[in-house]
Amino acid sequence: MFSNYTIQRFEGIETPFYYYNLDVLKQTLDACRDASAKYNFHVHYAMKANFNTKVVDMIQSYGFGADCVSGNEVLTAIKHGFGKDKVVFAGVGKSDKEINAALDADIFCFNVESVQELEIINELAAAKGKVAGVAIRINPNVDAHTHHYITTGLDENKFGINTWQLNDVADALRKCANLQFLGIHFHIGSQITDLEVYRTLCTRINEIQEWFEDHGFAVKILNAGGGLGVDYYNPDGNTVADFEAYFEVFHKFLTIKPGQEVHFELGRALVAQSASLISRVLYVKNGLKKNFLILDAGMTELMRPMLYQAYHEIENISRVAGDKENSLIKYDVVGPICESTDCFRKDVELPQSFRGDLIAVRTAGAYGEVMASNYNLRDQVQSVYSS
Ligand SMILES: *Cc1c(COP(=O)(O)O)cnc(C)c1O
């Protein structure tokens, strides 16, 4: 929802740009902080969802930790003031350079995704005379009931260590003197809206932590990852994800032992609803079977629809739907990039639209700006903030 004042303001700004509603961001962070504090759960922000400076600074100010998936994200988190005791580093392909950077930064924990990686971190830590904290990322073979492009916790996915390899993990941990085992880590996918999935995950975590305890490893950290979904279909009616219900599942179904910490790594649910991509209609093309709205934004600004068939609400904010002269028309809303897949959505019902109209692509705060590219030598997309 955009006020007339905001739309007036947009009129004076060159498009396309990301518009960040910082009130929505605050509302979301408040809700997440309050719901997690109830159970003393620790939340790490998955920085890959959005590393816009203002966004990251605001999240840091709430006292959340940072979940990083590259060496540069680790360095960026520390630069933004996240305490090194609250920075974790995940990822299936950490390079030696990245591991060394994280060792130098004395981060809290590496979430390790293979036996070979354990050995390499041990070797690099030994060379520096350090001990690296590690959690084992385990693939629990839980179906996240989400789009298959963003599911990560099944046997066929590249992420994590499969449970039949746990004996090898135990052997490696016993051998590696420069590793300190901290706990177990899971991340089964993204945009998960069925909370039953998390209940199943809890059952698997309980079994797997038993396995480690039985083999002589004290599990200090249970890290359940992230993945909580948002409502892409109703950004105004359902703006803040249901953090209460999400954390309650873990409170109810996870076996939490005395002294154990429970960690989460939320990305999308914290930032998705706080931004829209604002662009203008460049051209209206009426075909025989199709009408096209050609925008000045495309896959170079927001790639999600093209990358994994993601749905976004699309609004013409220059025209009021339902006016007599504004009967609804179906448009394929496309970008200017020289790729046939450069289409935000097909058959979008919008008021009759004209060159120069402002179009908002909603719920674009997660995996939006961060995935922008300069393919076709496009300008870097700008950011605008609510004041
Ligand atoms: C991407 C990622 C997350 C965050 O996922 P969301 O769906 O944005 O909550 C958490 N943990 C790891 C390891 C990730 O790769």
Automatic annotation (TrEMBL):
Q: Which cofactor does the UniProt annotation name?
A: pyridoxal 5'-phosphate
Tell me a Gene Ontology molecular-function term this record carries: diaminopimelate decarboxylase activity
What domain of life does the UniProt record list for this protein's source?
A: Bacteria
Tell whether Amino-acid biosynthesis is among the UniProt keywords: yes
Q: Which GO terms describe its biological process?
A: lysine biosynthetic process via diaminopimelate
Answer whether the UniProt record assigns the keyword Lyase to this protein. yes
Keyword terms = Amino-acid biosynthesis, Decarboxylase, Lyase, Lysine biosynthesis, Pyridoxal phosphate
Q: Which residues form the active site?
A: 338
PROSITE patterns for this protein: ODR_DC_2_1 (PS00878), ODR_DC_2_2 (PS00879)
- Domain named Orn/DAP/Arg decarboxylase 2 N-terminal: residues: 36-272
Reaction catalysed by this enzyme: meso-2,6-diaminopimelate + H(+) = L-lysine + CO2
Q: Which Pfam family is one of those matched by this entry?
A: Orn_Arg_deC_N
Q: What's the top EC group for this one?
A: lyase
Q: According to the UniProt entry, what is the EC number of this protein?
A: 4.1.1.20
Residues found modified as N6-(pyridoxal phosphate)lysine: 48
Q: In which pathway does it act?
A: Amino-acid biosynthesis; L-lysine biosynthesis via DAP pathway; L-lysine from DL-2,6-diaminopimelate: step 1/1
The protein's matches in PANTHER family, at most eight in alphabetical order, are given as:
DIAMINOPIMELATE DECARBOXYLASE, GROUP IV DECARBOXYLASE
Tell me what this protein is called.
Diaminopimelate decarboxylase
